[in-house]
Description:
By secondary structure, this protein is mainly β. About 5% of the residues lie in helices and about 40% in strands. The strands form 5 sheets. Strands 1, 4, 5, 9, 14, 15, 16 and 18 form an 8-stranded antiparallel sheet that branches. The termini are far apart. The N terminus is likely disordered.
Amino acid sequence: MSDTSGISVRSGTPVRRGPLRRMLVALLGTLSLAAVTAxxxxxxxxxxxxxxxxxxxxxxxxxxxGAAGSGVSTANWQYATGTGYPGGPAxxxxxxxxxxxxxxxxxxxxxxxNLLITPRRDASGNWTSGRIETNRxxxxxxxxxxxxxxxxxxxxxxxxAAAKGYWPAFWMLGAPYRGNYQNWPSVGELDILENVQGxxxxxxxxxxxxxxxxxxxETTGIGGSTSCTGTTCQAGFHTYAMEWDKSTxxxxxxxxxxxxxxxxxxxxxxxxxxxxNATNHGFFIILNVAMGGGFPAAYGGxxxxxxxxxxxxxxDYVQVLQAGGSGTTPPPTGNRDAYxxxxxxxxxxxxxxxxxxxxxxxxxQNIGSLAGGDWALYRxxxxxxxxxxxxxxxxxxxxxxxxxxxxxxxLDSRTSTPVGSFSLANTGGWQSWRTxxxxxxxxxxxHDVYLTxxxxxxxxxxxxxxxxxGH
Length: 471
């Protein structure tokens, strides 16, 4: 979650090797869905997600229908519990004071088509609350198309001194953060809705780059705010949305309140590498109510003895739409030649990687921040009818002494047995490139190729510029 006060809410985040950036994106684009987005005043309290308008398709929805007191669908969501991710910064990197739980005391359906995330305080003054995240991490626009992420929400209906410390949010993190927890803010954060202290204000922000400072002006980022009209943000439901538009030049990310675009960030506001690192991958969605932390501290602090617990964030639905572009269809079969250099940054999907400018011969970009468990997918690699028996990778490493790992090739599934691999340790630096060959089991035909990275340590151990295959 962002802290538009200028206080670093991720100050505890360990820095991995590679560019780290945090962006709060101000969006002032078009009202492409304003005509079809209903306002709080026109929707009943338990409305279903609206039907996608012409040209848009629904790729995810949860209307939160279910029995009162039941938990969320674990087919759609996972609970983030405790006071931080395993191996990540304390207090979720923001200084918030609650413990997140999966208890239905904190996260439950109300039986009327709504999700309630409710912060509570025990007799000893300890706070608990809830944080849920989509299982899916692949939300991004199709090439040349658009992605819209929206939710109809009533913020905790509490104001004034009783609201001190409340920090509800509806936001997204770049997929490479999951399982890593040390590569923020370079992998991008899109805060569709944040609110503090019961104020009638929505903040929307994009984070990226390095912190503090950097191209995205961290820790503030690139952000904007607006007020709810008709009813306050606390007194009624409003629709909060983000559109990520790859059909424009430059690319835009736009934020909306009740169909009105109030903030836009464009790709040309930062350098190309910063933008690519923050957006060249999928995202996952988060809903939570924090208590305390850097953002509330900038507006009076809390929680304190006067803060009143038990006021929920009420979520009617979350849906994701996409439009235009090439959709989610994989590239045509055989569109990559196994025997020509395949640029590592041209992946179709990935986890844990960043893209950065390379000083290798020919320039361009490489993928980096690669550690155990990371991977990249290249669809439709055509090996032909004569078996490939060799894999060649252009790699570099600035790993510390004793840190090494395997670069593996797998076909059609990330969990299939590798057809070949080579090991790598420090080559003299993250831009000290070597061409490493490895024998592989003979491969013919057309396959999706996964590069997977395995290591006995958690540290980064390799960058990849390109790879190909040979006979």
